[in-house]
Write a structure and sequence with these properties.
Structural class: alpha+beta
Strand content: 15-25%
Shape: globular
Distance between the termini: 23 Å
Number of helices: 6
Number of strands: 8
Strand order of the largest sheet: 6-7-5-4-3-2-1-8
Order of helices and strands: EHHEEHEHEHHEEE
Helix content: 10-25%
Radius of gyration: 18 Å
């Protein structure tokens, strides 16, 4: 994914496994993305929670850092037992699924990767950082021979349509491409499929609390394949500063 490093106009971003020395920066990124603080936490996560994630399931935690060691993106994940044909165990609030973001609900034998969180600083959205972090997740899924990934995709633009249509009608329209949702449309383009709707998923007025339960199935899954070790590796992507988007975009959502 890397390009010619001889071009000085390009700014490298590195995708690496999360490490404790970055935890405080990870919390600050959460506050920047969600407009929160320690005294007004909302659904943001704290440094000590990120450190706990690294102990519980180190293979599933990634960050995006600049060449000068600034955290500008992150993703958190855990493993869960899940059956797409009977998805009821995950049709619940995000805080219940994640044990208030501490991930004590992580199941080391879980057959699916659950997307706890993915966020990118507004200055770097639209530059492929989110996709690179998702690629890291797919790498973990493949190495561990998991069935796929499941997540709650918050319906970031439902507040604009709530008076005109019920949430199930809205989701169907987004899936058909008739309505653009800042969050769900992007996930559909990445190959996720909607299998259910989750009420009271997050405390977010834009979503009215709703999310879509989405899944991506691992095409390389085989029930007899043994899981492999997830080796920490450094992936580098390069951005042209002039192509970076403006600040003030909508926050990312838990996925």
């Amino acid at each position: 994914m890397s390009t010619d490093s001889s071009d000085p106009a390009r700014s490298p971003i590195h995708i690496i496994h999360s490490r404790p020395e970055y935890a405080e920066q990870m919390e600050l990124l959460q506050h920047a993305v969600y407009g929160t603080s320690r005294s007004n936490l909302g659904d943001a996560m704290l440094a000590e929670q990120f450190v706990a994630h690294m102990k519980i399931f180190p293979q599933g935690q990634y960050i995006a850092v600049t060449d000068d060691d600034r955290v500008i993106g992150l993703t958190a994940s855990m493993r869960v037992k899940f059956n797409p044909k009977r998805p009821h165990n995950l049709i619940e609030p995000w805080r219940e699924t994640t044990a208030d973001a501490w991930l004590s609900t992580h199941d080391p034998q879980g057959n699916w990767l659950y997307g706890v969180e993915s966020s990118v600083h507004a200055d770097y959205r639209g530059c492929g950082i989110g996709r690179a972090l998702m690629d890291a997740r797919w790498h973990v899924i493949t190495k561990l021979n998991l069935r796929g990934m499941v997540a709650g995709g918050a319906l970031k633009d439902y507040h604009r349509y709530a008076r005109r249509m019920p949430v199930d009608t809205y989701v169907r329209a987004v899936v058909r491409g008739e309505i653009f949702d800042t969050n769900l449309t992007k996930q559909i383009h990445m190959g996720f499929k909607v299998i259910a709707i989750i009420p009271n998923y997050v405390d977010d007025p834009d979503t009215l609390g709703y999310a879509a339960l989405i899944t991506w199935e691992n095409p390389n899954y085989h029930p007899e394949r043994r899981p492999q070790r997830v080796v920490a590796k450094r992936t580098t992507i390069r951005l042209r500063p002039g192509k970076q988007p403006k600040t003030g975009q909508s926050p990312a959502a838990h996925v």
